[in-house]
């Protein structure tokens, strides 16, 4: 039985910023796996992923980094192109290839206290998969992929299909300021958090970019400030890094505010370079001070 089981596709990413173009692996589960591998082993962790032949090298690198990894075959690897402007909050995306969704048969053998589903596209995790996992542990979801579908190569924003069904099975939900508006038609994070809690979510985590983040749990709000990065290099994977820090702390029994501050500090360090979080616990503590 693992503490955290992160399920999601490892992607190929082409990241275009005003300064440069970088090709690298990505995806929620990728950022979470490398992030957690840099932290003291206070929680047990497993990655469950699904990639095409060409991306097996990335899976091997994760295993060499000490990440317990279960990999299923897929016809293709998800291939994203992310383009950022001067304002890193604005990005346009294209999907140049898609991977196969996760199936009930693939998740049946998994055992964990928390299953974190890193959805990248709307059909990654069918409702029956989410509902089944909720019978075995707590389900944590990053909502981003449920609000994206691919038409041709373009990523289109869509309403969340099966939203009520999936939320009823979700204990922890992570979303950002754009996603909350799509889901609830509200721009007010507190209203959004209460609405989602009414639909069954125990811990609502809303990241608000440079404005910090808001956690709603046990009918209380926790406002988490953002820490100032030395330089903003690449925002790709920041939300995933936040989830990593948050779950890492919560599964050790830490409180919501403490987990949020730790997660925010991890994000700040991640923002300062391309690729996943590669700092140390001492770095996180320095930022928090």
UniProtKB/TrEMBL annotation:
One of its GO terms (molecular function) is kinase activity. Residues 3-275 form the Carbohydrate kinase PfkB domain. Keywords: Kinase, Transferase. It comes from the Bacteria. Pfam families: PfkB. Belongs to the carbohydrate kinase PfkB family. This is PfkB family carbohydrate kinase.
């Amino acid at each position: 039985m693992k503490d955290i089981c992160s399920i999601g596709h490892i992607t190929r990413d082409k990241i275009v910023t005003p300064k440069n173009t970088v090709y690298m692996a990505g995806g929620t589960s990728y950022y979470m796996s490398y992030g957690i591998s840099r932290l003291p082993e206070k929680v047990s962790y497993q990655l469950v992923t699904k990639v095409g032949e060409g991306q097996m090298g990335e899976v091997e690198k994760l295993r060499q980094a000490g990440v317990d990894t279960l990999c299923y075959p897929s016809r293709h690897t998800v291939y994203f192109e992310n383009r950022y402007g001067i304002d890193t909050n604005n990005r346009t995306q294209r999907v140049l290839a898609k991977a196969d969704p996760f199936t009930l048969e693939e998740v049946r053998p998994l055992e964990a206290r928390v299953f974190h589903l890193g959805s990248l596209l709307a059909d990654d995790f069918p409702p029956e998969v989410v509902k089944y996992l909720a019978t075995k542990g707590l389900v944590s979801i990053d909502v981003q992929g449920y609000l994206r579908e691919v038409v041709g190569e373009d990523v289109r924003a869509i309403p969340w299909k099966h939203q009520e069904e999936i939320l009823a099975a979700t204990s922890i939900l992570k979303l950002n300021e754009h996603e909350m508006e799509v889901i609830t038609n509200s721009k007010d994070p507190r209203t959004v958090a209460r609405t989602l809690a009414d639909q069954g979510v125990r811990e609502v985590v809303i990241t608000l970019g440079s404005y910090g983040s808001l956690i709603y749990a046990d009918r209380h709000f926790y406002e988490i400030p953002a820490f100032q990065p030395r330089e903003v290099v690449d925002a790709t994977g920041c939300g995933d890094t936040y989830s990593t820090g948050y779950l890492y702390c919560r599964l050790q029994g830490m409180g919501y505010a403490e987990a949020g501050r730790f997660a925010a500090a991890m994000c700040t360090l991640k923002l300062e370079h391309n690729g996943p979080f590669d700092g140390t616990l001492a770095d996180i503590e320095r930022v928090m001070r």
